[in-house]
Structure formats: structure tokens, C-alpha cells
Amino acid sequence: MVTELTTEKSYLIENNRLDLYSAQGLEEEMTKLFQKGMSVIYIDFSNVEEVSSAVLGLFLYKKVMFQKQGVRLFLINVKPQIQKILKILHLSGHLLP
Predict the structure, then answer these.
(1) Residues 27, 60 contacting (CB under 8 angstroms)
(2) 12 Cβ partners below 8 Å, 6+ apart?
(3) In angstroms, rounded to a whole number, what is the distance separating the alpha carbons of residues 66 and 49?
(4) Residue from 88, 25, 29, 19 nearest 57 by CA
(5) To the nearest whole percent, how much of the chain has pLDDT over 70?
(6) Whole-angstrom Cα distance, residue 43 to residue 13?
(7) Chain centroid to CA 65: how far?
(8) With contact defined as beta carbons under 8 Å apart, do 45 and 77 qualify?
(9) DSSP helix/strand/coil, 27
């Protein structure tokens, strides 16, 4: 589901749809992303066409957990339709760089 890119600390979401069913696997993989010494993690949304509120909640939760460890989490290459959702939910300031 998540592939490490050549860019340091950037990870590509392979699925085009993130829903309640993919949330658990995504949560497990995101937990594995954390490494000591990191300061930023970028999650590349290039392939993502749809995202559920459960997954957005997961990203907010992980952002808070990572921040406690001194690591910032951001979503990059987010498609316009998902950016609209983030703006409506007032999450763009929290999840976008």
C-alpha cells in the first residue's frame, strides 16, 4: 500500500481509494514509517482519487503522535478534489505543507 520513494522521507500511497477498509493496513504501515532522527515525513497522494473521513482522521491522529516525537507529517501532491475536501473540513492547514 505504501512505497518508499527515492526522495528521503517521502512515501507514495499506491492505492487510489483510501476508505475504512484500507485504514487499518495504512495505520500499521504508517507506524513503521517513524524512524528516530527524522524531522519530516511526506505522504505522496499522487495516486489517491478518493479518501474517507476515517482515513483523514487517521492522518490527523498520526500527525499528533509524530509531533510528540518531533516529526512533522504532511500530505503532498494532493489532487484538487481532495484539496477541496480538506479546505471544507478546515484540515488543509494541518495536513498540507
Answers:
(1) no
(2) 2, 3, 4, 5, 44, 46, 47
(3) 25
(4) 19
(5) 90
(6) 7
(7) 13
(8) yes
(9) helix
What is the SS3 assignment for 14? coil
- DSSP letter for each residue of 71-82: -EEEEES--HHH
Please state the rounded mean pLDDT for residues 13-24: 90
Amino acid at the residue 91: L
* pLDDT value of residue 36: 66
Quote the CA–CA distance of 97 and 80 in Å, as a whole number: 15
Helices 53-68, 20-33: inter-axial angle, 10-degree rounding: 20
Report the predicted TM-score, pTM, of the whole model to 2 decimal places: 0.85
CB contact at 8 A, 55 and 26: yes
How far CA 72 is from CA of 60, 94, 96, in Å, comes to 11, 10, 11
CA 73, CA 63: separation in Å to the nearest integer? 5
Looking at residue 6, the DSSP 8-state letter turns out to be S
Q: Which three cell numbers stand for residue 76?
A: 503532498
